[in-house]
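Predict the 3D structure for this chain.
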Amino acid sequence: MSGEGAKPQKSDYASVHNGRVFTPNQTSPDPSEVEAHNNRVEEAELAFLATKPDRFTAYIGEKLGDGTDFDKPERRLRRRLTTWAGKQIGTCFLSSSWTGGNRLAYGARMYQIYATVNGVDYTGRGLGEGMSCNFRRRFPRGGRPQAGRSQKEPHRCFTTI
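Done. Predicted structure below.
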């Protein structure tokens, strides 16, 4: 790693190919240190998720059971939601889907994905199992709470004369 004691960025997982180490941020850990490096990155990522962020990236995993034992009205099959290294951080389900035509490089279908991580609901769009998805927090109807506005005061789009 460049710099003694430097902390890797949360998205800086390393992989080894033909004896060379590759990372998205072009840091260069020693090949023998890749596992320790990835563990530090994962710890930073899990600490970030513990703050219940508004946005994050995760990976869609395999199905959990047959889906009949979950209390959601959708009754869709739940899937694991994981970090890049495969640690489960929550669950998700694939909702509606549509064809992406020639705009999608890796799949013919795009999915609306709903996830729950640390008790917070998120939504995102992705290509399904094994692929990454960018999630954003889901707020109840009425939108995101704004600073300086009472939680009970409705959002007003129009002014009355």
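The helical segments are 34-50.
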